Amino acid sequence: MAANLKRLVALLELWNSRKIWGFLALTFALLNLKSLPLFWHIRFFWGVLSKIRDSRSRTKSSIVPSSIFQPAIITCRNNILDCDIYQHKSNSTYFADLDISRTHLIGSLLMKGIRLEKVSIRLGTVHCNFRKEIKPLAGFEIWSRVLCWDRKWLYIVSHFVKKGEVVPRGWTLQPWRRIKHHRSANAATKGDATGLGEESRKQPHPAIFASAISKYVFKRGRLTVPPEKILVGSLLLPAQPAHNDESLDGISLPTRIDSAETGVASAAQILDVSQAEATFEDSLTSQPHGNAWDWKEIEQERQRGFRIAELMAGLEDLHDEFTADERAALGHFRDLP
Q: Which of 35, 120, 124, 135 reaches 20 to 30 Å from 84, CA-CA?
């Protein structure tokens, strides 16, 4: 009895000591590292600075036109502080992780063109389509890649994917990485290259938790620089055919996606409700073109991406839905500071 009492007293003394509380606090901080104050800034600047360093040491042959639609992949974990009351990743935290994923993509692909044109890059819109929950402490990957571009905007598509479930066919900038050969989960659902026309391809990739589309604009002061110039400066666009009338100085691309100008049918004509999500998820896997891409192949892939970007272009009209002082309001409620 006395021995048990002594053990109890020892445990209480340990519990009340500063060391145990310090250990618990450190453990909690490490488990929630990316959710701590200012750590988003550390992740962001780490991505930017590391890509500046890599771009200076990279050979000219590392990035070629066939790289333009390849994804950049980062690995994350769903921390406890990122979970909501339903004990899965909170919807709001997806956007912070998207910032970091897009930073690595843009830094890997466009750093040379951004520095050459002396532009800043600004985010215009983000839309996220949630599909499956991400459970606490579960690992996941974010695959981000260029979807398409027009005269003003660069569109990027991102996918939150189950960690280790999908493996790319190779690593352009990291040839030392091993290529794992196994049957990917998308083999059962893979359809034609367009994502349309086969009944089985209407089902999204089973490894996807969520998908997002973002658009960026490049600015030099108040002047908007077309994304095409940044791509050319980054050595990602091959020479245009001699008979092509389009040029960077002319109106080669529309300011907004317009089916009459681009020659692409409207989203309503191409996609029904059941096909829209499947076509969006189809961008997870890059299309098989081989290593040498010419202007025609890149333009075909860009136009293919317009079928998704056109859906996003319609969101510009959301600002018109603000009724301002035209109607009565329910009330003005206080939130915690």
A: 124
